[in-house]
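job 3f2a | input accepted
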Amino acid sequence: MSLLISVTLRARDAIKGTWREAAKFGVIGALAFVVDNGGYNLLVFGVPGAPGSGPMNTFPVQASVLATSAATLFSWVGNRYWTYRLRRREKVTHELVLFFVANGVGLVITAGTVFASRHLLGLDSPLSDNTARITGWVLATLFRFYAYRRYVFVAP
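job 3f2a | predicted structure (156 res):
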């Protein structure tokens, strides 16, 4: 019976640790989402209520790449020094390269949904752009959580 209790307690602790990590990852991700989507909307559509459009109105895919890049830098700092502070690598450069590779894949996923919406479906409204970006962002976030735990921030 003590073996069953031991296995149950270890499983509970593992699940508790993963949920705590996922919650921190979620907080950093939510803030990165604001940087990403806020930056994208400012670049493409401009300041809400102001006349005209954003400086990258005719370049929505490039604006998506720029906004996602800014959010990626924010995310690396937050995840390295808070979410995965006990799992970060000693070689910062190696970790950063792996982080950028994982986020590069995430960037392609997010920009790809904008590309599909704009160029394959012919949609160009703020609603369709943001729907495409949120869809891409969700898919990219699932990929990033897996990649960070598996490849980037590994336990020493």
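job 3f2a | Residues 2-152 form one domain.
job 3f2a | closed
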